[in-house]
Structure formats: structure tokens, C-alpha cells
Amino acid sequence: MTGYAPAEAARRSGFSLDTLRYYEKIGLLADVERTAGGQRVFTDDDLSWLVLFRCLRDTGMPIAQMRRYAQLAREGEHTVDERRELLRRHAEQVEEQMRLLQRQYDHLREKIRFYERLPGR
Amino acid sequence: MTGYAPAEAARRSGFSLDTLRYYEKIGLLADVERTAGGQRVFTDDDLSWLVLFRCLRDTGMPIAQMRRYAQLAREGEHTVDERRELLRRHAEQVEEQMRLLQRQYDHLREKIRFYERLPGR
DNA sequence: CTCCAACCTGGAGTGCGCTCCAGGTCAAGG
DNA sequence: CCTTGACCTGGAGCGCACTCCAGGTTGGAG
Fold first, then answer.
1. What is the dihedral of CA A108, A99, B11, B47, to 10 degrees?
2. pTM of the model
């Protein structure tokens, strides 16, 4: 009973309908169910994949790597080590990204303070 | 005496030579000096602009907006209010970006913990 | 003076991640 | 039934930020 129409899946995942179709086309999202007439029906499982993709995408993982992860997951339990390692390496890159962002943010705030201290304001 | 050859400016700024030429072409970097023969000579002032561009770019500012900022700075002192506001608005977006990144990073770490707690490991 | 690595220009090409389109099909409300 | 809005496909197009290229010039070391 948990089947979502395309528009509903788009709304819930925050991806556009075009993006959902694109993700299926490139093999990120596999085997999406269809009605007899060929229209997509998304399951809760598809939705939770989409939540994961959003997390990975928001943290800057390239689509090729997300595809690799999804591929491994489809291959079965013997790939759990590799999947965990893939996520760990990605997390390290995210940490680096956060440090850089913080550093540049601090730099930006300093620049703003320079403007705030300008005489005449 | 503080003039840098293109390769040196690239090394110091971390931008490629092609990127430096591109930034000049689109009007981010204006009036770069030249030798009699037409080769670029970068000043310390150019270099500090590049440091700023790196900061803004690393924090996700689109080039069009960096151009606007550079344009304002060239127009003179009467644009300081607008420049400060531009940077402030950008800083707010960076804060939002940092919150999202942190949130998704936490999500990612949870996923990794799930793998670490898997039986049999 | 000669050499050659570094530089120049205008313009084409690239990679990523979508986004849009034309021309049709499906399915639920009235 | 009929309508109409949501959906389908394959493929082209887009926006961004570079990156590369061909074909020619420059300038410092030897």
C-alpha cells in the first residue's frame, strides 16, 4: 500500500520529477515499479534511497560515486565492507570541506568587520 | 618591484594560468599590467584580489556576484555600503550552507555507525 | 645572436548535473 | 464515455566554471 505517484515522490524527496527520471536512467535508482500502463510507482524503499542520495549530494559526492555505492548495495551483503569504507572516505572529505568552509567564512567575516569599522559609518 | 610573472602568480594564488586569464577576460581582474611585449605582470594588489576571489569562490559565491563586487570596488568609496551588504548577505548564505553540511554530515556518520554495528564485524 | 620555455590571442571544447522539449499515452473525476 | 492533467520516452539544450588548442610572440640564459 506504500506506493507513491511520481509527483508525490518528487515532493517528498525534494528532487524534481526530471531528476528522478534522470537518476533512474543513469542507474542510480534501479527497478522502479510501474503500473500496467507504464507509469512509475515509488516505494518507501525508493524514498529512503532518495534521502540517502540527498545526503550524499548535499555533501558533495559526485554522482559516479553514488552510483558505485548503489551498485555495491545491489550486489549483496558481501560488499558491506567496501560500502562502509566508501562512506568513511567520503566523510573524511566532508570534514576537510567543513574546515575549509569555516576558514573562508572567518576570512569573510573579517572582511565584513573591515567595512564595519570604516570611518564615517 | 613587486611584480609577478604569470606562472608565479598562478603558484601563489592557487588558480591556474588559464583561470587567471579567464578572470581577466570576464572582467573580474581588471587592468592587469603588461610588459612592453604584452606579457602580464601581476602586482601584490592583484594577488590580494585573488585571495579574496578564492575566499568567495570556496564559499560558493557565483562568479557573476564576484564581478559585481569587483565592479563596485572600482567605482569608488561611495559603494562601500553596498559592498558591505553584499558580503553580509553572502555570509548569511554561507552560514546556512554550513548548517546544512553539518546536518548531512551527522546523517552520514549515523549511516557509517550502522555499518560498524552490523553483526559479524 | 640563438634558442626554447614561457607567454600571448581568440575561440572551441569539456564535465557535471540537471532541465527542457515534442509528441504522444494514461487514468481518475464528472 | 470524455476530458484533462499527470505522466511517458528519447534526445537536445543549458549554465557554470573552467580547460584546452592552434598558431604565433617574447625574453632571459648561454
1. 10
2. 0.94
